């Protein structure tokens, strides 16, 4: 095994920013990204010239999107890396920015995600390999089938699964950066447009556009630039993996369980010590699978605990306090970075109406097309 991030020099999140996630518009993507970057620099009390390296996460913009965006801040001739890793693009950019700082290569690094709908199809569609199912099992069908399997195995109902969306829409209504900012009743969630099986549109993430940015710094960077160390949030662990041949029918859950176990072990904490968790809940059933996979609750126990309020803001562990992908939205490139921003706000005690009391440890999790998984643990 290689060296853990935690074995290198400490890494901290010192600045966060967003452009609100929103439906597709005529706004050029540099405007989205620059809003997030400038807000992150302002939050950190840093100038652009202090940033030594940049990682730009996109999934739908095409080649070298960061060039046309960052030049508006000033062309400095410094390293620039573009990262595409499906839904986990932002998480991958964040991980590599942390590695650069932890390794001592740089002291202040930007990770920014920005995306707009459109762009190229998945590369797999051009791989020259046929599929036995073709387009019959698209993501929402896959997760509708997983919903049915969970309902049958654990003796719950589709109405119970929809309660996840009710919680997350309630959280999203308190989030100024969320794409969906309206509380929804259980009846509204169930009566929304059918998508596949028992999944309805309000149980699925919306597509849209937006941006999120974070500034990562070393202790030396914090000291040299006179930053507020009291608002710096430690990156305690970073884990990443990809699917393996015998992972079973649900690669997302298998790789999630392994990555979460690795991250928690690196951070030397137990699942019960997590205060806030941001999950890849593109579909309501995913929150159940990943919460149980992380060991936050035993298999089949999620719904009873959800009904008790255990996963609400102020409960045992605030899950998807941002609104999650279901309400916050999922512009793809920014999503994983936005999760880091949410947890940073929570651990600083700056989340306002969404604040989870006494939050000290948070976990962010993203998967990318069932093939890759990233998990980060942050601590105050």
Please give a structural write-up:
The protein has 380 residues and is of the alpha/beta class. It folds into two domains: 5-120 and 207-233, Thiolase/Chalcone synthase (Peroxisomal Thiolase, Chain A, domain 1); 138-204 and 236-379, Thiolase/Chalcone synthase (Peroxisomal Thiolase, Chain A, domain 1), CATH 3.40.47. It has twelve helices and twelve strands. It has helices at residues 29-44, 65-70, 89-102, 139-154, 158-172, 186-191, 219-224, 251-267, 284-293, 302-308, 324-327, 335-348; strands spanning 12-22, 53-57, 80-83, 108-115, 194-196, 199-200, 209-217, 233-242, 276-278, 318-319, 361-368, 372-379. The protein has a ten-stranded mixed beta sheet with strand order 3-2-4-7-1-8-12-11-9-10. A hairpin with a 3-residue loop joins strand 11 (361-368) and strand 12 (372-379). Helix 5 (158-172) crosses helix 9 (284-293). The longest helix is centred in the last third of the chain and has 17 residues, at 251-267. 54% of the residues are buried.
Describe the structure concisely for a colleague.
By secondary structure, the chain is α/β, with parallel strands linked by helices. The protein folds into two domains: 5-120 and 207-233, Peroxisomal Thiolase, Chain A, domain 1, CATH 3.40.47; 138-204 and 236-379, Thiolase/Chalcone synthase (Peroxisomal Thiolase, Chain A, domain 1), CATH 3.40.47. It contains twelve helices and twelve strands.
């Amino acid at each position: 095994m290689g060296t853990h991030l935690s074995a290198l020099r400490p890494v901290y999140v010192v600045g966060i920013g967003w452009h609100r996630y929103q439906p597709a518009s005529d706004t050029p993507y540099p405007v989205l990204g620059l809003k997030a970057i400038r807000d992150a620099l302002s939050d950190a009390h840093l100038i652009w010239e202090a940033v030594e390296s940049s990682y730009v996460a996109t999934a739908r913009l095409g080649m070298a999107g960061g060039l046309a965006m960052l030049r508006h801040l000033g062309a400095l001739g410094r390293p620039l890396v573009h990262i595409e890793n499906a839904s986990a693009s932002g998480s991958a950019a964040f991980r590599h920015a942390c590695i650069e700082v932890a390794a001592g290569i740089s002291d202040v690094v930007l990770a920014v995600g920005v995306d707009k709908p459109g762009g190229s199809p998945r590369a797999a569609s051009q791989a020259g390999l046929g599929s036995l199912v073709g387009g019959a099992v698209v993501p929402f069908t896959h997760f509708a089938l997983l919903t049915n399997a969970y309902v049958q195995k654990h003796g719950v109902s589709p109405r119970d699964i929809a309660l996840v969306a009710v919680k997350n829409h309630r959280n999203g209504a308190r989030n100024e950066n969320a794409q969906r900012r309206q509380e929804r009743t259980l009846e509204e969630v169930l009566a929304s447009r059918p998508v596949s099986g028992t999944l309805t549109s309000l149980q699925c993430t919306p597509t849209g556009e937006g941006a999120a940015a974070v500034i990562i710094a070393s202790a030396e960077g914090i000291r040299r630039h006179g930053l507020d160390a009291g608002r710096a949030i430690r990156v305690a662990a970073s884990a990443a993996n990809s699917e393996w041949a015998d992972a079973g029918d649900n690669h997302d859950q298998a790789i999630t369980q392994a990555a979460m176990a690795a991250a928690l072990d690196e951070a030397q904490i137990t699942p019960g010590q997590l205060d806030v968790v941001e999950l890849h809940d593109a579909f309501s059933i995913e929150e159940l699978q990943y919460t149980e996979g992380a060991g936050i609750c035993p298999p089949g126990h999620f719904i009873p605990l959800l009904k008790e309020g255990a996963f609400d803001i102020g409960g045992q562990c605030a899950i998807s306090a941002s609104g999650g992908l279901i309400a916050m939205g999922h512009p793809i490139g920014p999503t994983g970075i936005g999760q880091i921003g949410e947890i940073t706000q929570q651990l600083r005690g700056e989340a306002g109406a969404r604040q989870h009391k006494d939050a000290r440890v948070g976990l962010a999790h993203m998967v990318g097309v069932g093939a890759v998984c990233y998990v980060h643990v942050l601590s105050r």
